[in-house]
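User: I'm putting together notes for a lab meeting next week and I want to include a structural view of one of the chains we've been expressing. I don't have a solved structure, so I'd like a prediction I can at least talk through. The sequence is below, exactly as it appears in our construct file.
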Amino acid sequence: MRQTPTATRSSPGGDLDPLQTLALAAMAAQLDDPVRDWADTISRRGAALLHLAWDGVLRQGAPADLVIHPGRDSVEVVSRPASGRRVLRAGRWLTQAEATLPDFRELDGLRPAA
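Assistant: Thanks for the context. Below is the predicted structure for the 114-residue chain, given as structure tokens.
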């Protein structure tokens, strides 16, 4: 079963995809190297702000949740944040269907009432 992110019409990061949100912030703030300089905002710092049990640092014994992106550099990663990436969740590679963003209609019940 695919986990469906919560989304709202008021959020430009409507799929709540951290990499997509970083890409939007990089463009808006004209960040020089967003992945190198700011990736911890969607990993270590994000985990701390959410008070997660895991601190977001990859190490032996940590949860095997990560994204591998085919981009060769920071510019390529943020220019196509969802393109060609592979997702490992709980030590298992997600299938393409599981990793594909949901159809907007699947999110209708998650939106707050207008």
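A couple of points you could mention at the meeting. The helical segments are 18-29, 34-38, 44-49, 74-79, 96-99. The CA atoms of residues 39 and 86 lie 17 Å apart.

User: Perfect, that's what I needed.
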